[in-house]
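okkk here we go again. third time trying to get the zinc ion bound version out, last two times i messed up the smiles copy paste (missing a bracket lol). double checked this time i swear
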Amino acid sequence: MKEETPEDEDKPRKEAELKIGDESIYTEEEAKTLVECLGILQNTRGVGSFPCPRCGYNRMKDPVAKNALSRRADVYICSECGQEEAILDAAGKDPLPLNRWDMVIALAKEMKGW
Ligand SMILES: [Zn+2]
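finally!!
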């Protein structure tokens, strides 16, 4: 959390709501909706034109079924991310929250005009 100054209290929701790389911007539910919208696009237009929504790298394979289906949302992710999810699950660790996925963070930045 940032230090609170009297000035911050006058415009409380601007900076506090959006803290990239720190706290989440969207709720997990909102993030899931966003990510699954991409899932629909992947199924209709193929994954080739989209980067991996989880890591943001351009390494999705065509056709769509060659990629990994996320365990967290109805969307395809790259094989590396698929493996990572599987490993985290197997180790009983917390998954990367959907609202920390690269795509969701990128969208949040765009909404803010960054
Ligand atoms: Zn990935």
